[in-house]
Amino acid sequence: MDALVYEDNSTSTHESWLERGAHGRGGLRMLPVNLIIFSAGLLLAFTQFQQEAVFFSIIGATLFLMLVINVALKPTKYQIFSGKIRIVLGWILHFDIPFNNIENATSATPGDLWGLNLNFINSYSSNDILQIIRKRGVKIYISPRNRKFFLEHLNKSLNDWKRNNIN
């Protein structure tokens, strides 16, 4: 079992959801999912029901579902274990990146976010974004609150892991 080496919160966990929305941060990642859910709710509401109260109930339930999904899938913590990086999403979900699949980790800019990649970021500030280049798979972008310390701990843990796993 891997031991927890370092844990950092996401950059925007201290901001309210209104502040993130007002600055245009945090919502772009979930835009396709929100559009699909909202379109399905509108289609259901317009085609299946004639009563006005039921129509507004379906629309309200759709908007509530979109809010729950956004909160549940928002990255809240980034953890470094002795053999992997864990991205904690919301309350119970997580995404692991094993050290044997990490080629390099560097700081990144918002211009690097274009293309095929996974964005687990809540802030688009160039001072926050960290790029993880994997050996297999797409690049992953995260935004720990203290990028410098996170990168230091990650590089130390990667070096320790490589030293212990040389065949």
CA-CA gap between termini: 20 Å
Question: Which class do the helix and strand fractions yield?
Answer: alpha+beta
Order of helices and strands: EHHHEEEEEEEH
Radius of gyration using CA atoms only: 19 Å
What's the gist of this structure?
This protein has 4 helices and 8 strands. It is α+β, with helices and mostly antiparallel strands.
Question: How would you characterize the overall build of this protein?
Answer:
The chain has helices at 17-22, 31-48, 52-72, 147-164, and strands spanning 4-9, 75-81, 84-89, 93-98, 102-107, 117-120, 130-134, 139-142. It has 167 residues and is α+β, with helices and mostly antiparallel strands. It has two domains: 4-15 and 74-164, Pleckstrin-homology domain (PH domain)/Phosphotyrosine-binding domain (PTB) (PH-domain like, Roll), CATH 2.30.29.30; 27-72. Strands 1-2-3-4 form a four-stranded antiparallel β-sheet, covered by helices on one side. The chain has a four-stranded mixed β-sheet with strand order 5-7-8-6, covered by helices on one side. The longest helix has 21 residues, at 52-72. Mean pLDDT is 78; it is low at 13-28.
